[in-house]
Amino acid sequence: MNKAKVIILAGFLGSGKTTLLKQLLMEERQKGTKPAVLMNEIGAVSIDSDAVQGDVPLSELLNGCVCCTLQDQLERQLIILCQQHQPETIYIEATGVAHPVDILDACLSPDLLNYIEETVIISIIDSPRWLNRDVMSIQSKMLLSEQVKHADFLIWNKTGELSAAEKNQLQEDQNRLNPNTSAVMTDFSRIDAEIIKNLTSSQKGNHEPAALGRQLKVKSFVYEFNGPITKESFENWLRQAPDSIYRMKGYMQFIGEKGTILMQYSYGLPQYEPEIMKKPLKVVIIGEGLDVELLRGQLEKLS
Ligand SMILES: Nc1nc2c(ncn2[C@@H]2O[C@H](COP(=O)(O)OP(=O)(O)OP(=O)(O)O)[C@@H](O)[C@H]2O)c(=O)[nH]1
């Protein structure tokens, strides 16, 4: 049996991992190659799995993080994917709070030696968030740095609006933290898929174990809207919502607008896309130290 290459897509909540995955899968489809996807989401409801078309084998690990509580399950799911589908490449989309070295650790398990050729870590960084990371908790800042430090390849994403000085800062930070890694600056994770295909791991066997106690106190909860609300009330709520909400994604309906929309929120910005299918109006909210009851109460009052 041919062994698979594993590509770990790491990067903080909302940095652009799914955006990249969609493009890579489109490229695979055009080339007629055989990918598989293992998707891990911190919330109890999967929103990103729609990014993977039906004919691509997909394994989902929900409601936890593969780098801590779900490590054994990651190993098992990788074996099942390899045995059932013999993929050439397996993309692991990690949760935004996963430490890449822990995922790498799971992939280097002796039980996977017969199935996996090599494992490459790509870190996708939300560049504006990176530049403003001082407002985040110490643990979140550490995690962001670790995601930069341990990457085999770095994608500085969301750089479209950055000044030359800010881009220079990113370059300096990379030189300091991970000088030997190649990197690109992108918008909407747009990158030549060949670059990704040709990446090799720089960490064969000599990666450092991740520091203990780095796990964040990230909480997620699912809020279900009873029906449509006004966009204005939602955006007013967003403006006063705590900065420690790092990510929201899910389905909503706005009064006066037709159909369901997919709402995505990361680093202060909501984005809306029309959704063709009818979906339950559930939104996953992820953050640190969230007062879930308070937030629920506020959302219930939106109309
Ligand atoms: N403005 C801007 N938005 C972007 C860019 N790249 C991605 N986005 C948007 O940012 C949001 C999050 O992107 P995703 O690709 O879902 O991020 P992710 O890393 O998969 O998110 P999680 O899986 O929740 O951690 C989406 O609304 C994207 O459309 C970019 O370069 N610029």
Outline the structure in words:
The chain is of the alpha/beta class and 303 residues long. The chain folds into two domains: 4-197, Rossmann fold, CATH 3.40.50; 218-301, CobW-like, C-terminal domain (Hypothetical Protein Yjia, Chain: A,domain 2, 2-Layer Sandwich). 31% of the residues lie in helices and 26% in strands. The chain is built from nine helices and twelve strands. It has helices at 17-31, 71-85, 100-107, 127-131, 138-149, 164-177, 193-197, 231-240, 292-301, and strands at residues 4-10, 35-41, 58-62, 89-93, 116-126, 153-157, 182-185, 218-224, 245-252, 260-266, 269-275, 282-288. Strands 3-2-4-1-5-6-7 form a seven-stranded parallel beta sheet, sandwiched between helices. A five-stranded antiparallel beta sheet has the order 8-12-9-10-11, with helices on one face. Helix 6 (164-177) links the parallel strand 6 (153-157) and strand 7 (182-185). Helix 2 (71-85) packs across helix 3 (100-107). The N and C termini lie far apart (56 Å). The model has no long low-confidence stretch (mean pLDDT 89). The structure holds guanosine-5'-triphosphate. Guanosine-5'-triphosphate is lined by residues 11, 13-19, 48, 96, 157-158, 160, 187-189, 247, 249, 264, 266, 271. The site of guanosine-5'-triphosphate has 21 residues, from helix 1, strand 9 and strand 10. It catalyses: GTP + H2O = GDP + phosphate + H(+). Keywords: Chaperone, Hydrolase, Nucleotide-binding. One of its GO terms (cellular component) is cytoplasm. Belongs to the SIMIBI class G3E GTPase family. ZNG1 subfamily. It comes from Fictibacillus aquaticus.
